[in-house]
Amino acid sequence: MKTQYFTATSLDGFIATENDSLDWLFGLGDLNDSSYPEFISDVGALAMGSATYEWMIRNAQKVATETGFAWPYTQPAWIFSSRKLTIIEGANIRFVNGDVHHPHTEMRAAAGTKNIWIVGGGDLAGQFYDAGLLDELIVQVGSATLGKGKPLFPRRVLSPVLRLVSVHQMGAGMAELRYEVHKGGVSGAA
After folding, report:
1. Strands of 17-135, DSSP E
2. Tell me, what DSSP letter sits at residue 90?
3. Are the C-beta atoms of 117 and 47 separated by less than 8 Å?
4. Is the pLDDT of residue 97 over 90?
5. What range(s) does the Bacterial bifunctional deaminase-reductase C-terminal domain occupy (predicted)?
6. What is d(CA 140, CA 130) in angstroms, rounded to the nearest whole number?
7. Residue 100: CB partners within 8 Å, gap ≥ 6?
8. Quick count: other Cβ atoms within 10 Å of Cβ 184?
9. Is the pLDDT of residue 30 over 80?
10. N or C terminus: fewer CB in 10 A for the chain?
11. Where are the alpha helices (DSSP H) in 122-172?
12. Distances (CA, A) of 44 to 73, 85, 94, 158, 179
């Protein structure tokens, strides 16, 4: 079982625009031609930041058109937010805030032998990293630049903490990089 941060980023290191838009991403490739279908089949629980969850709420119709459901996950999800948010009907979610350790313990129990997916955003993944709970980063890099926006991973991580284990080209618009996080080497967090 691993705790994984699986996300897409622009070439200049942003996962969304400054207005939380992901529109830049959709023209770069087909999700079904990526590692996502295999990845999601091994996920037993989700961790999601409030900005990502609010994007799901704002784009529920678009998500439903693409996936058939406004909430496309069957796994239980922990939404990290200090604000009260709308509940998406049919979603198996819990709202939590504060330190990631206790929710991570709950997610591990719910996931069983499957993995935990940190869906987004970068700061939430950074909190798991800071706590020594992040095992892997799976980053799909798109052939687009945004100039500014929400950073991929707003932490200082110096070698050799991240170990590149694979690179895979996905068509002409994306490349997937997989990194293992070496425990005990977590340092330089900013």
Report:
1. 43-49, 77-80, 93-96, 115-120
2. T
3. yes
4. yes
5. 5-174
6. 22
7. 47, 80, 124, 127, 128, 131, 133
8. 7
9. no
10. C
11. 122-130
12. 10, 23, 15, 30, 20
Cα–chain center distance at 86? 20
Say what the pLDDT of residue 89 is. Answer: 84
Using one digit for the tens of pLDDT, what is the confidence trace for 54-89?
A: 999 998 888 888 788 889 999 999 999 999 999 988
Q: Which two structure tokens, joined as six digits, stand for 73? A: 């996950």
Residue 173 tokens read as 């618009």
Residue 151 has pLDDT above 70, yes or no: yes
Residue 42: closest CA among 1, 99, 8, 92 = 1
Taking the CA atoms of residue 167, residue 143, residue 34 and residue 47 in that order, the dihedral angle to the nearest 10 degrees is 90
Residue 32 DSSP SS3: helix
- For residue 119 the two structure tokens come to 């869906």
- What is the rounded average pLDDT of the residues 42-65? 92
Cα dist from 70 to 52, 76, 78, 88, 113, whole Å:
14, 15, 17, 8, 27
Copy the structure tokens of residue 124.
């939430």
